[in-house]
Specification:
Layout (H helix, E strand, L loop, with lengths): L3 H15 L4 H9 L5 H8 L6 E3 L4 E5 L5 E6 L2 E8 L2 E8 L14 H12 L4 E7 L8 H5 L12 H8 L6 E10 L1 H7 L3 E5 L3 E3 L3 H5 L7 H5 L1 H7 L4 E3 L2 H13 L40 H7 L6 E3 L7 E8 L2 E8 L10 H16 L4 E7 L6 H5 L2 H14 L4 E10 H5 L9 E5 L3 E3 L7 H4 L1 H6 L3 H15 L2 H6 L6 E2 L4 H12 L15
């Protein structure tokens, strides 16, 4: 006797699972310009590396004799796979089955995916489309009772959704309409990316319309809206671009907090000195300049991976490599508020400094900060509260830190350019300028009596400006050892290469920093 009948049934059930919601629903997905969850997994993972778990789960229908007629698969597909050779957990919503809602979900599947990532210390990638199991209006009828969010035996999923942020890299992909719990799962990640045609919201247009707001999905929660608000990190045009972003993000990080980020061979000259750096910062302090070319000149060629570009735009954040070593890079952007820290920028600093601490990444900060934002909007958004939180996040870090003062360092935000109470490296460019307050705009207030008493107030103002400008030379500060080193800008890359090699033995495997704020 053989087990051929059972084997035939296994193959039959596997085929039903791979049909997903049926040919018409698959075609509808394709007509909308979107891939199915299985196609997404195939294109994201290394070829033939996906090992599915729970493939046979779903709702079966049987004839009067108990013979199988059809199985409608659960709308969650998950398993283990490899991305660029690294083991990961992939979990995705199947929008072809009840639009990814709770009516067709089996809650244990996404929960096991989170468990698997934590237990085996593997990165997890959530491919999200739909409500992510959060339910729908029909759920009350199909279940026969009204669901209590976080009710009996329902909180563990919420716990795992956020607990993994302190354990493994968590990536969220929003590839369609993402609502409710799905939106929470997307936002609860270290890196999130949406396609431009996608939308994310706590509640969709029909529910919002009851508030008197008639909006399309894109008007309510389009990808660009969510990127500007800081709810997600990146917007791309195609799903293939989204998959490329996932691969690149993961390449800078360890598989879990129990390892260290991988150091890769570098083909870039560690002593490369870019002549353009001598002209990068204009002498006219009112003139802005571009920071991203400076970043490109000092990190390994092509290695900077920017994240959160549309949010908190006075600070640039991302991952990079210096002589093959991964770092978390912060850089001021004088094109936005002159590099001053807004409330949004402060929140962004907290998030990315925490990312560095969680995954043992040394921090490099290219600084040009004239202080916190000032004015009514700054006060209305509680900039100083968010600023103090950013300072606390910096001071709580244990990762090696190196700051390069490119131009401005003023006020309280100017002081927040390296962790306090411990050693870090700091270099100042020839263009650096600092103080408690900028001289421009402050001289007239500080020397009002002298200016008013002078026979020629304008001449007196110019005389005072000349005297103070001579004193604010960075070399005067270096004389007093108020700044450690002033360097030729062209030597920046060489100094940073030295820093990452000093930092290498200090990245401690097995230690877990504070969980990153989503």
């Amino acid at each position: 006797m053989t087990w051929t009948p059972e084997l035939d049934e296994l193959v039959q059930r596997q085929g039903m699972a791979r049909q997903m919601g049926g040919p018409d629903k698959v075609q509808r997905q394709h007509d909308a310009g979107r891939l199915t969850v299985r196609e997404r997994i195939d294109r994201l993972a290394d070829a033939k590396s996906f090992h599915e778990v729970g493939e046979l789960s779903g709702i079966g229908t049987y004839d009067a004799e108990g013979r199988l007629q059809q199985v409608m698969p659960a709308n969650c597909v998950f398993g283990r796979a490899r991305i660029d050779g690294r083991p990961v957990v992939l979990v995705g919503d199947d929008f072809t089955v009840r639009g990814g809602s709770a009516d067709a979900s089996i809650a244990a599947k996404p929960m096991m995916a989170e468990d698997m990532a934590a237990s085996f210390r593997l990165p997890i990638v959530r491919i999200i489309e739909g409500s992510g199991g959060g339910g729908s209006v029909k759920t009350i009828e199909t279940k026969g009772a009204s669901n209590l969010p976080g009710g009996v035996d329902q909180t563990r999923g919420f716990y795992m959704m956020t607990a993994n942020l302190g354990e493994v890299p968590v990536v969220g992909l929003g590839l369609g309409s993402v609502a409710g719990l799905g939106a929470a799962r997307l936002a609860s990640s270290h890196f999130s990316v949406m396609t431009r045609s996608s939308a994310m919201f706590v509640a969709g247009p029909p529910l919002v319309a009851r508030l008197g707001q008639s909006l399309t999905k894109q008007e309510l929660g389009g990808a660009d809206i969510q990127a500007r608000s800081g709810a997600i990190d990146q917007v791309v045009d195609t799903e293939e671009e989204a998959f490329d972003c996932v691969r690149r993000f993961l390449s800078y990080l360890p598989s879990s907090v129990h390892g260290v980020p991988p150091v890769l061979p570098s083909q870039d000259d560690p002593a490369r000195a870019d002549e353009a750096l001598m002209q990068a910062v204009p002498r006219n302090k009112r003139q802005v300049y571009k920071m991203r070319p400076i970043i490109a000149a000092v990190v390994d060629a092509g290695s900077f991976f920017e994240m959160g570009a549309q949010f908190g735009r006075s600070i640039i954040t991302g991952l990079a490599r210096i002589d093959g070593h991964p770092v978390l890079l912060l850089a001021s952007d004088p094109y936005h508020y002159g590099g001053a820290w807004s409330a949004d920028a402060c929140q962004k600093v907290v998030r990315f400094v925490d990312l560095a601490e969680t995954f043992h990444l040394p921090v490099v900060y290219l600084m040009d900060c004239p202080g916190f934002m000032i004015g009514q909007e700054a006060e209305r958004t509680a900039t100083i509260r968010h600023g103090v939180r950013a300072m606390a996040a910096m001071n709580q870090t244990t990762m090696p830190w190196c700051t390069v003062i490119v131009r401005n360092a003023f006020g309280v935000a100017g002081a927040a350019h390296q962790p306090s109470g411990r050693l870090s490296l700091r270099y100042a460019w020839l263009s650096a300028s600092w103080g408690s307050l900028p001289l421009e705009g402050g001289i007239e207030a500080a020397y009002r009596a002298d200016i008013d008493a002078a026979e020629d107030p304008a001449a007196e103002l110019r005389k005072i400006e000349a005297r103070l400008n001579a004193l604010r030379s960075p070399f005067r500060s270096a004389e007093k050892f108020w700044v450690e080193e002033i360097i030729d800008p062209r030597a920046t890359r060489e100094r940073l290469v030295d820093f990452v090699h000093l930092a290498e033995p200090l990245r401690t495997p097995g230690r877990s920093g504070p969980a990153m704020r989503p």
